[in-house]
Design brief:
The protein is mainly alpha-helical. It has four helices and no strands.
Length: 104
């Protein structure tokens, strides 16, 4: 789980601070007009926050599994954490908050 958590941290940093926005699914295939309607810095901040939170949850779950001596929970907890984070990002990222307002 630590490797996945580290990957999430690296992805969060790369997208937010490295401006590697094309790593976001769907963004790299958008036209220039579609990209102009997206507040990409806000989306990148949301992505970073979700990635960091999922990484923290994975690390906490791994520590819990170690001390509770329940290795059979690792797959279930990982799947639950990642699924919840991805769903949150998709739902939250598609709200009007992350769209630029155009009067036309």
């Amino acid at each position: 789980m630590w490797a996945i958590a580290l990957l999430f941290i690296v992805l969060g940093i790369a997208i937010k601070y490295g401006r590697m926005y094309n790593l976001l699914a769907g963004y790299n295939t958008m036209s220039a007009q579609e990209k102009a309607k997206i507040n990409i810095t806000a989306v990148a901040t949301l992505f970073r926050n979700v990635m960091f939170f999922m990484a923290a949850e994975l690390i906490a779950a791994d520590i819990f599994i170690y001390y509770a001596n329940t290795p059979n929970l690792e797959d279930s907890l990982s799947l639950c954490i990642i699924t919840t984070g991805v769903l949150y990002f998709i739902i939250r990222g598609n709200t009007k908050k992350y769209r630029l307002h155009n009067n036309s």
